[in-house]
Write a sequence for this structure.
């Protein structure tokens, strides 16, 4: 597995990312994750839709909470042809609990805890923490990545405007 350093930090300390990086123009890798009801989900389940993949370390942290709530707010303006998925290594039960408490209904949360398949496929698996790096990928209807951002400092928020603009452009 590919290891990369010098890409991200956590509170200024360098971390190692595992997996191959994904860039705009690449075919979006499929992955296997779990929905809150433990059913399997992958990118193929959203074929024909524009998909925003929002990767976060854990929903139980302030920045991840803010990121997921922000995309939940943006979802209504994007319409039914856009799906927003927040992927983390949190257990599906914790994700369901968090969504219920936060009132998040327009974003679907997926758990990567079992095999880190999403994290490895998109190059956002933090080796030292076994968590996902903060990142946003937009996948067009054709299955190609139209926007890719791995946030350099894990405690910073992503560029929401760029992700939303990429999703709108992909419609």
């Amino acid at each position: 597995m590919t290891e990369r350093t010098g890409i991200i930090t956590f509170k200024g300390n360098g971390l190692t990312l595992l997996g191959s990086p994904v860039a705009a123009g690449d075919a979006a890798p499929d992955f296997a994750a779990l929905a809150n009801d433990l059913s399997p989900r992958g990118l193929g389940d959203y074929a024909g839709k524009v998909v925003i993949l929002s990767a976060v370390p854990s929903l139980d942290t302030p920045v991840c909470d803010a990121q997921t709530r922000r995309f939940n707010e943006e979802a209504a303006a994007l319409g039914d042809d856009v799906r927003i998925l927040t992927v983390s290594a949190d257990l599906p039960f914790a994700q369901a609990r968090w969504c219920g408490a936060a009132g998040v209904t327009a974003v679907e949360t997926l758990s990567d805890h079992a095999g880190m398949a999403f994290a490895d496929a998109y190059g956002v698996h933090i080796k030292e923490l076994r968590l996902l790096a903060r990142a946003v990928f937009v996948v067009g209807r054709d299955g190609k990545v139209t926007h890719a951002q791995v946030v350099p400092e894990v405690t910073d928020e992503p560029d929401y405007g760029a992700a939303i603009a990429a999703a709108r452009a992909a419609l």
